[in-house]
Design a protein that fits this description.
Length: 81
């Protein structure tokens, strides 16, 4: 099996999707919804920017999502994580 050198490896495409609802995160995990469209759009932009260099290369998108904290968390010990 041939290993790729560091010069052949493509850096990941990091996409900041910001705060999202649980429903959209679940849809993203399943490969559906608006967030998947945003990820695919970002990959397409990178391919277009690279032009002919993008031929035969595999791109790895990394989606960064910030989950919303539940507000008004009440319980027996609300001060604990």
């Amino acid at each position: 099996m041939a290993e790729k050198s560091d010069t052949d490896a493509n850096p990941p495409i990091v996409i900041d999707l910001g705060k999202q609802k649980r429903k959209r995160i679940k849809q993203l995990k399943r490969g559906r919804g608006k967030l998947v469209d945003r990820v695919n759009e970002a990959v397409a932009q990178v391919r277009a920017a690279l032009g002919p260099e993008a031929q035969g290369k595999e791109f790895v998108p990394v989606a960064v999502i910030f989950r919303r904290d539940e507000k008004g968390r009440k319980g027996m010990f609300p001060f604990m994580g």
